[in-house]
Amino acid sequence: MKHIPNALDSLTGIPQAQAPTDKPPLTYDETLALIEVRLIELGFDDRVPYNYRTISRYLAHIVKRTTKRGIWIDGAVGTGKTLAMTILCKQLNKIRHGGKIVTARRISMDVSKLGISEVLDKFISKTYDGLTTGLRGDLIVDDIGSESASSHYGIKSWPVIDLVAERYELWQATGQRMHITTNIPETVPGTDAGGLLERYGPRTVSRLHEMCHHVSFTGSDRRRDQQTATSGR
Fold first, then answer.
1. What is the pLDDT of residues 167-191, one digit of tens each?
2. How many domains does the chain have?
3. Are 140 and 176 in contact (CB under 8 A)?
4. Do residues 11 and 62 make contact, with C-beta atoms less than 8 angstroms apart?
5. How far is the C-alpha of 182 from the C-alpha of 233, rounded, in Å?
6. Residue 54 main-chain phi, psi, to 5 deg
7. Cα–Cα distance between 148 and 204 in angstroms, integer?
8. Which domain holds residue 140?
9. 58: closest CA among 87, 79, 94, 96?
10. Residue % of the chain over a pLDDT of 90
């Protein structure tokens, strides 16, 4: 497959601890080749080479433990963002790093019912007297920007802002990553604000840039294309 310049080309490696084995560990290229085949088997659309190569290469780095940063995927509806994160979550658990995927809307609804502190405690690992509570591993927040502001006892808030702040500190201390998807661009073209920057503010967006590799999926709506193909039979 022809090499396609990709935003993940600049990933830098960190030493990987290898368990004792009679076989040499797979190289990055060997790992990538296996992942590319597996993605097709899992239904990931390879008609848009950039999207396919982007998530393939990031997953290979996850398996090889050669990146400390998460991934932030934006793009139009139906381009494979949620599917990519679902596969990522399965891979994180397969290599026993740990991972959980949750929608931004679910977080917002839970905050309205339970309050911000109780919800944040579920997604931030903390250790007291040798006992660890909360999520251990990476957190994947799907479809940020689709949620409404939460209101708990009349106090309105954007939970994603608080969640990013807490996960940022956790990432710095422990390396537990955060990954996000969104249909909303960082800024609206032709303006100085808009998009995620206007909704969450420059501090939150800056932290996301530091924690994550930012890539944009392109292409048409895969679900609509499938419906069109089916109806045309």
1. 999 999 989 999 999 999 998 776 6
2. 1
3. no
4. no
5. 33
6. -60, -55
7. 17
8. 68-220
9. 87
10. 48
Both structure tokens of 185: 């661009």
Report the 10 Å Cβ neighbour count for 62: 23
Q: What pairing do the DSSP bridges indicate for beta strands 126-128 and 150-152? A: unpaired
10, two tokens = 């600049």
The contacts of residue 172 (CB under 8 Å, 6+ apart) are: none
CATH number at residue 190: 3.40.50.300
| Nearest CA-CA partner of 160 in 187, 178, 185 | 178
Query: How far apart are the C-alpha atoms of 84 and 157, rounded to whole Å?
Result: 29
Q: Which two tokens stand for residue 37?
A: 């085949």
Mean pLDDT computed over every residue of the chain: 82
In a domain, 164, yes or no: yes
Residue 180: closest CA among 195, 166, 163: 163
User: Do the beta carbons of residue 46 and residue 95 sit within 8 Å?
Assistant: no
| Phi/psi of residue 223, nearest 5 degrees | -65, -40
d(CA 164, CA 174): 15
Buried b or exposed e, range 187-215, using 16+ CB within 10 angstroms: eeeeeeeebbbbbbeeebbebbeebbbbb
Lookup result for tokens 């419906």: 227
- Give the residue from 184, 188, 88 showing the smallest Cα distance to 139: 88
Quick check: pTM over 0.85? Answer: no
E strands along the chain, which residues?
70-75, 99-103, 126-128, 131-133, 138-142, 150-152, 155-157, 178-182, 212-217
